[in-house]
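Review form for a predicted model. The reviewer records the input and the model, then writes brief findings.
Reviewer: anonymous (R2)
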Amino acid sequence: MDTIASIFSFITTPVSWVIVQFHALYGAIFGADTGLAWGLSIVSLVVLIRICLVPLFVKQIKSTRNMQVLQPKMKAIQERYKNDKQRQSEEMMKLYKETGTNPLSSCLPILAQSPFFFALYHVLSAIASGKTIGVINQSLLDSARQAHIFGAPLAVKFTDGADKVASLGASQTNVRIVTAIMIILMSASQFYTQRQLMTKNVDLSVKTPYMNQQKMLMYIFPVIFMVMGINFPVGVLVYWLTTNVWTMGQQMYVINQNPTPGSKAQAAFLDRLLKSAVAHGELRSRRKRNMVKAIVAKGPDRNDVERKFIGSLAKAGMAAQSDGSVIKSDTIAVEAEAGAAARRQQPKRQTKSKRQAAVTTQSGAAAKTVETGATKTADDAADKPSLKKDEPQATRAKASSNKPVAGAARQAKSGQRKGQQRPKHPSKK
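Model under review:
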């Protein structure tokens, strides 16, 4: 603990000063020794830190967007080197370096919060041990040790013994119930935030190392917090639960207002945008017009969700312009209807097995027709009276002997001319 304290000593004093300033404000309202005053001081510390980290969050969003732009190139690399995983990884790293994209940027907010987290942990540990730290003097120390949040002292942990908990005026059972509930809420909020990102705000059409990383973090972080949470003081649990709730709300705002291209969130956003454009005949928000402008500028590179949006606008008799606005156009609606009708009139393509069955059926029918015709011809020939019955028997036999055999042409050897052959010269007989 002394080693950690020495590492984060540069930030321990600022963190303790901020807590004391907020405590002075809330103490005047709720009472200096109440858990509400000290708990709200920690919550306000979280809000202040997260506001300072907004530029870093914006950088994270931009990096995420760059990752989405690189998705087609990543997919091409995967297809090209699908049998060579090492070469695939090397090409991915080369692409990241050329475009200046960092796939680990999603971890930056957590890394930036780590010094504040450990500094607050050390401050609360000193309060639990009865030691002054930073700008917290003895009077503030005594006030903090008397503060309880839902019956649990601010500085106790789940693993603390009954004697230490009793010295702070609480029961061990009550402390463990409160800390267990807070640990579960902390882990659940972390899991929900990451799952919301993976299921709604990620383009799942392309598998990348970035997606694998996010999926791994979705399961690892909640487990880490749950295991480590039993060693966190109640004040630290309040801090981490508050920052998780902030992250969850911030993520929900981004998903609803600035979704990732190709994601389910973008499909829902463009659906709302379509309804607004049809209802009002225009886009009133500059942010919405910028979204449409970006979609129009993509041209043939639009994803399926964006193409569906442009087609739905055309069916509604509207067209998206290059400046992001939408205009009504009857010509576009007629063309969209004609295209849809033409697509509906196209015959449905049969499967291979159906096509083979149809060919077999037609062949059988043709063979049956030929056989029927041949039988009918033979029957007609048998029934037809002979016109040559008055001829002598010898004449008919000679005539029949001069007719070519029907299968002679088919039985001709290879290289020999088919059909009736010229009679050989008498000298060659």
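Findings: The chain has 18 helices and four strands.
Further findings: The CA atoms of residues 205 and 285 lie 30 Å apart.
Recommendation: see findings above.
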